[in-house]
Each structure stands twice: as C-alpha cells, then as structure tokens.
Design goal:
mainly alpha
C-alpha cells in the first residue's frame, strides 16, 4: 500500500512538472517571437536610417563637387579675363631689363648680387 502512494505521488509530480514546463515553454516562445518581431522592426528601421544617411552623404558630396567645379571655372575665366586686360608685355620687358641690369652688375663687380659676403668680425681682440 505504501508503494501505491509513492508511485501515485511520483506520477502526479511528473505530470505537474510536465504541465508547468509546457506553459513556461509556451510563454518563452511567445516572448521570443515578440522580441524577434521587435528586433526585425529595429533592424529595418536602422537599415533605412543607414541607407538614408549614405544617400544624403552622396548628395552632399555631389553638391560639393559641383560647387567646386563652378568655383574653378569662375576662377579660371576671371584669371583669363584679367590677363587679357593686363599688359603682359610690360611684365616681360621689366624682367628683361632686370636681367640685363644684373648681368651688367656681374660684369662690373665680378660678383652676383645674390652672392653673400663674409660677415664682419666684431669681436674684441
């Protein structure tokens, strides 16, 4: 008779344990599916933000490139216009006159104007 009580207690304990584990597993799978859906939503949201970030960055970089091209074009055109209006021959003549003057100084002094002379000695003796 004692064996019957022990056997019935054992069977009831196993049955109750199985039922508790079944409910826990069911709750865990429901929570995991909810978290998986939440994670998918977060992942999709982050992916969209990242894609939008790179699209905006590419657009800004394209704008910078276009502005740089406009700036370069403007600077080159204005430089050409300024040089057309400026008397370039005068500059060339001034350079030729300066080079002739340097050559004459070299012939007369036997020193180049850029040649350094020995520094003076100011030490007391």
């Amino acid at each position: 008779m004692v064996w019957k009580y022990i056997l019935m207690s054992f069977i009831c304990g196993i049955t109750i344990g199985i039922i508790i584990m079944w409910f826990k597993k069911r709750n865990i799978t429901q929570k995991q599916s909810f978290h998986n859906q939440d994670n998918k939503h977060n992942y999709n949201e982050r992916e969209n933000k990242l894609i939008n970030h790179f699209i905006n960055t590419a657009d800004l970089l394209n704008d910078i490139t276009q502005c740089h091209c406009k700036f370069y074009k403007y600077m080159s055109e204005s430089a050409q216009n300024l040089l057309k209006n400026h008397n370039v021959k005068k500059d060339l003549l001034n350079k030729e006159i300066l080079s002739k003057k340097i050559n004459n100084d070299i012939k007369n002094n036997n020193k180049t104007p850029f040649e350094k002379t020995q520094p003076r000695d100011y030490s007391e003796r």
